[in-house]
Amino acid sequence: MARQLGFARVIFFAIFLLVSLANAQKEKIFDVRNYGAKGDGRTDNRKAFLRAWSDACNLKGTSRVYIPRGVFMLGSVEFVGPCKGPIVFLMTGTLRAPAGPSLNTQQWITFRYVNKLIVKGGGTLDGQGASAWPYNTCSKNNNCPTLPISMGFAFVTNARIKQIKSINSKNGHLSFFACKNVNVTNVELIAPAESPNTDGIKIGSSSDFRISRSKISTGDDCVAILSGSKNIDISYVYCGPGHGISVGSLGGSPGDDNVSGLVVKHCTFSGTDNGVRIKTWESPYKSIASNFTFEDIVMDKVRNPIIVDQTYCPHPPCSQQTSSHVQIRDVTYRNIRGTSSSEIAVSMDCSKSVPCKNIVMSDINLSHLGQGPLKSSCSYVDGRFYGRNNPPPCF
Ligand SMILES: *[C@@H]1O[C@H](CO)[C@@H](O)[C@H](O)[C@H]1NC(C)=O
Ligand SMILES: *[C@@H]1O[C@H](CO)[C@@H](O)[C@H](O)[C@H]1NC(C)=O
Ligand SMILES: *[C@@H]1O[C@H](CO)[C@@H](O)[C@H](O)[C@H]1NC(C)=O
Ligand SMILES: *[C@@H]1O[C@H](CO)[C@@H](O)[C@H](O)[C@H]1NC(C)=O
């Protein structure tokens, strides 16, 4: 018996060795330290990171860019593909941006034209935002610096972003443009409630996108779904503090494209300004925002739990020559419960030119944290409701 067991162990070990060897051959590691990077919190590691990326990108087969523990100072970098094989960007340490408002780029770290990318490893992006936020003056001053987003992805396909943390971004934390089939899981994005424009995740012109099991506590939208996005699924996300999960703002420019197929479910909003929001500018630019489902959502002390704002104007005065031309339709709100800190828990301020169509509400059970009953407020809404609803619907 003992001999048999011993034999089985040997076989098992041999198989294990073979599998590991095969894996080692398949996956090559590019440790940034071998390119001169130093995790001492002082050395600028731009060149070392770019050289490691370049070698990894040129390898046929899977390569890993490895950032070990330590604090790696990093100026702005752009990791550009297409690459010859899949790439894992394995960050275990902290990447720290230079202090101050500007890096002379829109994004601090950018991945562009990469197919099959994985960013993971439990590491942290530290944007050093506190040194940049006082320079966020663009709403008052045209001569303002461009504050960079911490990590941006453009034309990236078949990607997974998981187990990373981003703190104190100068502008937004993560941004995606023209990406397809991206899964974001177990990320933590943190900045103070009063930090300006520190959106958690911005998604534009992208499709087949999933965000799940993540915590976003920031000074602007937890997730913003922008023009041209399709099939976005958000689940098990905790948002707060922040401005909620928003579609838009839409209709801000003539090229604005349709947004369709959004599901937000099993999410919690805590102490946020908004829960689920759709916002559009008053402008002549036409597009369609349709097929959205918001369900199984908990609101905890949220100021505007359900809000559609088609007269969006964050820094008045706005031009407002016309009502919004973004058509909002086929939107379902189902099983939304918890507390509202303001009296108007459901606010649907739709467009006079293109009223909201086919809005469905069922089982909305909110209660007021202050005095008196909750109310809904509607203008230009066509909708139906089912089940018990508090506040009572206004359409
Ligand atoms: C993302 O998740 C979905 C659903 O689990 C899966 O079908 C898809 O292949 C995943 N994409 C990537 C790039 O891992
Ligand atoms: C938006 O959707 C409408 C209706 O489906 C379509 O006619 C229009 O071409 C779409 N816009 C763009 C830019 O694809
Ligand atoms: C609505 O969105 C869901 C989820 O993204 C998608 O599966 C479905 O096909 C869409 N329906 C239509 C009619 O576009
Ligand atoms: C609504 O929520 C309150 C407080 O959480 C709860 O007591 C009540 O049973 C709920 N009503 C329905 C119809 O679910």
UniProtKB/TrEMBL annotation:
A Pfam short name: Glyco_hydro_28
Q: Which family does it belong to?
A: Belongs to the glycosyl hydrolase 28 family.
Q: Which SUPFAM superfamilies match?
A: Pectin lyase-like
Keyword Translocase on entry: no
Q: Name one GO molecular function term.
A: polygalacturonase activity
Q: Please state what the protein is called.
A: Polygalacturonase
Give the reactions, separated by semicolons, that this protein catalyses.
(1,4-alpha-D-galacturonosyl)n+m + H2O = (1,4-alpha-D-galacturonosyl)n + (1,4-alpha-D-galacturonosyl)m
- Primary site of residence: secreted
A single BP term in Gene Ontology = carbohydrate metabolic process
Signal sequence annotation: 1-24
What Enzyme Commission number does this protein have? 3.2.1.15
From what organism does this protein derive? Corchorus capsularis (Jute)
PANTHER family (UniProt xref): PTHR31375
